[in-house]
């Protein structure tokens, strides 16, 4: 027995739901089903942003918005001119979900709960008569005369148009390769750096505004760095991990970084500042209090690493010690050995080759009536709500094209 629909969307995540709702709202006569392999839908939405769901980012200029995508920058320019962050806010507002902007530009539901977003989607699918089938792991997809046929482990479906919104699911990528699509090999993006460096070993929880460079590469980044039990995290590190996803994978996550704890003050300038402090605080001990805008504990650790004892007074600093300290502050070298996944937000760089997709419609250039939404394609972003924005935008474009 085959279940027949106009449109089937494989994948019950953010992109899948947004696409389905957008299609049926534009044309209520279209019969749509969502197939989800897991026992529940929208699992990534639930855990994102620490359970608060980082819906989008308060960046309202499409030409600026694209700059947050290490892969997809060029391709998303057109789509973002059709549906960007402002449209996302309006879309949720219209459905009774108010969003708020936090200091760093991230946007969350005012309720501070991802459940609000999940409820919004579930309510809409029920109201629009969109059928959601869980526990449906797709085993095969093939093209018949004028339709697509999909088999799961226990059901058969047919549809006129097929939308794949399966995120980074290797099984679906394998199927697409059989259809002639090129898959850019997935590698992790958005991860934290592991290091056992004694200078930061006892400092988990300490953060600072930094500038970081990766040795022997063009990769650099600025922003907050957070010291953790296993090494380094925070926006500056995550940004670097996204832009360097392929390069760092090729290095097997063994590399050296240079940290400027003074976020841009260079070595010479730092030496001048330290010499001035030597005059000003001559009788005080160097290690006692940080003269810069970061924690005393970090300052003390960098002072000791420069070969200056805890009792040393500013007046007693030698020229050599000042140079060492300036070096630690502006160009501290740290050896990274491995990575850790950032929270549960597993993001990959990789997916369907972008040249094989028409970004005016999100339709496959190789197969008519086959569409893609969300992370299944080789697009990913830095952290901050940008990966969800790609899900909403691509879902919107698919719906426009289909309807």
Topology:
Elements: E1 2-10, H1 14-26, E2 32-35, H2 43-51, E3 56-57, H3 62-65, H4 73-82, H5 85-94, E4 99-101, E5 106-109, H6 114-128, E6 131-133, E7 138-143, E8 148-152, E9 156-164, H7 170-178, E10 183-189, E11 191-194, E12 207-214, E13 220-227, E14 231-233, H8 235-243, H9 245-250, E15 254-260, H10 267-280, H11 296-305, H12 319-331, E16 332-337, E17 339-341, E18 347-352, E19 357-358, E20 363-364, E21 370-372, H13 386-402
Parallel strand pairs: 1-2, 1-9, 2-6, 9-21
Antiparallel strand pairs: 3-5, 4-5, 7-8, 8-9, 10-18, 11-14, 11-17, 12-13, 12-15, 13-14, 15-16, 19-20
Account of the 3D structure:
The structure is a single chain. The protein has 403 residues and is α+β, with helices and mostly antiparallel strands. 34% of the residues lie in helices and 26% in strands. It is built from 13 helices and 21 strands. The chain has helices at 14-26, 43-51, 62-65, 73-82, 85-94, 114-128, 170-178, 235-243, 245-250, 267-280, 296-305, 319-331, 386-402; strands at 2-10, 32-35, 56-57, 99-101, 106-109, 131-133, 138-143, 148-152, 156-164, 183-189, 191-194, 207-214, 220-227, 231-233, 254-260, 332-337, 339-341, 347-352, 357-358, 363-364, 370-372. Strands 1, 2, 6, 7, 8, 9 and 21 form a seven-stranded mixed sheet that branches. It has a seven-stranded antiparallel sheet with strand order 16-15-12-13-14-11-17. The chain has a three-stranded antiparallel sheet with strand order 3-5-4. A hairpin with a 5-residue loop joins strand 12 and strand 13. The two termini are 28 Å apart. The model has no long low-confidence stretch (mean pLDDT 97).
């Amino acid at each position: 027995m085959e279940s027949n629909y106009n449109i089937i969307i494989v994948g019950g995540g953010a992109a899948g739901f947004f696409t389905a709702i957008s299609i049926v709202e534009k044309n209520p006569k279209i019969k749509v089903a969502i197939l989800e392999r897991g026992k529940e839908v929208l699992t990534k939405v639930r855990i994102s942003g620490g359970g608060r769901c980082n819906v989008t980012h308060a960046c309202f200029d499409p030409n600026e918005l694209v700059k947050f995508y290490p892969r997809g920058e060029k391709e998303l320019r057109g789509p973002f001119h059709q549906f960007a962050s402002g449209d996302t806010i309006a879309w949720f507002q219209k459905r009774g979900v108010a969003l708020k902007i936090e200091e760093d530009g991230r946007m969350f539901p005012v309720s501070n709960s991802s459940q609000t977003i999940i409820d919004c989607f579930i309510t809409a699918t029920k109201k629009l008569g969109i059928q959601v089938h869980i526990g449906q792991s797709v085993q095969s997809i093939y093209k018949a005369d004028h339709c697509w046929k999909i088999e799961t482990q226990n059901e058969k479906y047919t549809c006129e148009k097929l939308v794949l919104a399966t995120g980074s699911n290797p099984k679906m990528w394998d199927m697409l390769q059989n259809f002639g699509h090129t898959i850019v090999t997935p590698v992790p993006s958005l991860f934290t750096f592991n290091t056992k460096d004694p200078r930061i070993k006892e400092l988990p929880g300490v953060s600072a505004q930094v500038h970081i460079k990766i040795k022997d590469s063009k990769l650099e980044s600025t922003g907050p760095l957070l010291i953790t039990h296993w090494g380094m995290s925070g926006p500056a590190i995550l940004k670097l991990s996204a832009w360097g996803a392929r390069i760092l994978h090729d290095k097997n996550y063994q590399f050296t970084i240079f940290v400027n704890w003074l976020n841009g003050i260079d070595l010479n300038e730092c030496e001048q500042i330290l010499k001035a402090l030597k005059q000003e605080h001559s009788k005080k001990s160097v290690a006692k209090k940080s003269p810069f805008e970061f924690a005393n504990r970090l300052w003390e650790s960098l002072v000791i690493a420069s070969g200056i004892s805890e009792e040393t007074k500013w007046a007693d600093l030698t020229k050599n010690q000042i140079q060492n300290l300036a070096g630690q502050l502006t160009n501290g070298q740290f050896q990274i050995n491995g990575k850790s996944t950032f929270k549960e937000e597993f993001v990959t760089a990789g997916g369907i080759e972008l040249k094989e997709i028409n970004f005016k419609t999100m339709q496959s250039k190789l197969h008519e009536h086959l569409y893609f939404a969300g992370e299944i394609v080789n697009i990913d972003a830095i952290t901050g709500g940008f990966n969800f924005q790609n899900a909403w935008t691509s879902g919107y474009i698919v719906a426009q094209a289909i309807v």
